[in-house]
Design a protein that fits this description.
Elements: H1 3-10, H2 12-18, H3 29-41, H4 46-63, H5 68-82, E1 97-102, H6 109-122, E2 127-132, H7 137-149, E3 153-155, H8 163-177, E4 181-186, H9 194-210, E5 217-223, H10 229-241, E6 245-249, H11 259-267, E7 271-275, E8 283-285, H12 288-296
Parallel strand pairs: 1-4, 1-5, 2-3, 2-4, 5-6, 6-7
Antiparallel strand pairs: 7-8
Helix pairs in contact: 1-12, 2-3, 3-4, 4-5, 5-12, 6-7, 8-9, 9-10, 10-11
Length: 300
């Protein structure tokens, strides 16, 4: 099963619900109520769902749409167009392209970094992994295994060490090695705690003392199964750090998925990657149209 086949399977509930408008060619309150309920159920959120419906109404009237399938396709286009996406660059000047990966515990940060490492090394890039999550011995060891598996560099210190010091050492190691990419893992204690944000901000400050342009990316990993709580997490991290992108994991484990729409629309932060399984190949580039098709399917 391909990546969007898995996503389609996970989002079957949403797709089945919204497909109940099949054959309904009268765009009345009942029609829009069905759309609204399905969008909210998909975790798009009430305000954004109403915004999408208002845009639908305007376009249906303006274009003279009378067919339910056309209206359905219009809805999908509106959603896909809102999912601004920017892929990782093919080239990484100046070296190393430094990516700080953040997020709360349990979202899959370390695994995501390992999968990114696999992707880059497979492309022939030299990668260094920095274990700046110095609070979880398991995270350090997990990252070490990913580095060994992919012949990547690895930098760590003792458990309890200053995370900013690890990040600085990792950047120095990547520079001296001439690496293309540096991926930095970080701790993920509750996002409501100011000490975590202060710690992450310190990492950024220390890195910029070494090279003013780094980190090139600050990516937030979000667990799709957390629903609207993901928005609260993203706001906190974005306010503190200025995120450059999102990675949404565990989409194979949710019957929803609209949180991607809500995150992109509200924060204007692109989705870089999505995770749809445990396999090493299951971290994929984000394709807005394929994503929307997986969520909502087609009307025949």
């Amino acid at each position: 099963m391909n990546v969007f086949g898995k996503l389609k399977e996970g989002l079957n509930k949403t797709r089945s619900q919204i497909a109940t408008i099949v054959g309904k060619a009268v765009f009345d309150d009942s029609f829009y109520d069905t759309i609204e309920e399905a969008l909210i159920s998909a975790d798009i959120g009430m305000d954004l769902s109403l915004e999408i419906i208002d845009e639908m109404k305007d376009a249906i009237a303006r274009q003279g749409i009378t067919d339910a399938k056309e209206a359905y396709d219009l809805m999908k286009k509106i959603i896909a167009d809102s999912l601004h996406v920017v892929q990782f660059p093919d080239e990484f000047p100046p070296k190393p392209w430094t990516v700080l990966v953040v997020g709360v515990n349990g979202v899959g940060k370390t695994t995501t970094i390992g999968k990114l490492c696999h992707e880059y090394t497979r492309e022939g890039k030299d990668v260094v992994l920095g274990a700046a999550d110095t609070f979880r011995a398991g995270a350090v060891e997990q990252l070490r295994i990913w580095a060994q598996r992919n012949n990547a560099g690895f930098v760590s210190q003792d458990i309890g060490a200053d995370p900013a010091s690890v990040a600085f050492d990792a950047l120095e190691a990547a520079q001296s090695r001439g690496s293309d990419v540096l991926l930095l893992d970080t701790a993920g204690r509750l996002h409501t705690k100011a000490n975590l944000m202060n710690e992450l901000q310190k990492i950024v400050r220390v890195l910029r003392r070494k090279a003013a342009h780094v980190p090139n990316e600050i990516l937030l990993v979000i667990d799709a199964t957390t629903g609207q709580n993901a928005l609260r997490q993203a706001r906190v991290f974005n306010d503190a750090l200025g995120l450059t992108g999102l990675i949404i994991t565990k989409l194979d484990g949710t019957a929803k998925g609209g949180i991607a729409v809500a995150l992109t629309k509200e924060l204007n932060i692109p989705i870089r990657k999505i995770g749809v399984g445990e396999g090493i190949e299951d971290l994929q580039d984000f394709d807005p149209q394929a994503y929307v098709d997986a969520m909502f399917g087609d009307i025949k």
